Amino acid sequence: MQGGVRCYANCGFSFRSSMSFGQERSPKFAPTTCTNRYNTPLQLLISFLGVLVFFVIFNYTNRSGEDDSYGYSDNEYLGTITKKFIDRNNHSYQMVIIQEEYKEKSLVLNVETSGLYEFLQVNDSIIKKSGTLEVRVIREDLDTTLVMTFD
Questions:
Q1: Mind listing the pLDDT tens digit for each residue in 9-54?
Q2: What DSSP designation does 88 have?
Q3: Contact in structure between 32 and 111 (CB atoms under 8 Å)
Q4: CA distance 17 to 24
Q5: CA distance linking residue 84 with residue 107, whole number of Å
Q6: What's the pTM?
Q7: Which H, E and C letters describe 10-60, residue by residue?
Q8: Which is more confident, 31 or 84?
Q9: Long-range contacts of 69-73 (CB under 8 A, 24+ apart)
Q10: Is residue 62 within a helix (H) or strand (E), and if so which, with residue range?
């Protein structure tokens, strides 16, 4: 100890002593450890792995129980097809416009793989209940139910 000042390296603080030279200091007054966080690569690795595990678990719990229907099973349609086209300005999506009683809905079928888009025609009536992938299509001489599939 020199000049009554004791410095602790790498701890970010210094301790000034009020005692004169030659006197012994009680150990209870001196700091015992340096609490610098993340001072080893092992602690950084453990912290990184903890965050990674958190995100993996969070992502898994959000996706559990999800099917591959891309949310199509939640939608409900009851109306007449007024337009059917490929939207070249929007990633060439297969679009079907359905006129319901009070509003117009659009149905994007670019990820659907059963051939529903090819089967549908303008002026077809379409009925799809929420919670199912079954689509009932009614035409002048046809009344059939198709099941939407997704690969």
A1: 455 444 554 555 555 555 555 555 555 555 678 888 888 888 888 7
A2: T
A3: no
A4: 11
A5: 10
A6: 0.55
A7: CCCEEEECCCCCCCCCCHHHCCCCCCCCCCCHHHHHHHHHHHHHHHHHHHH
A8: 84
A9: 69/133, 69/148, 69/150, 70/111, 70/150, 72/112, 72/133, 72/148, 72/150, 73/130, 73/131, 73/132, 73/133
A10: helix 41-63
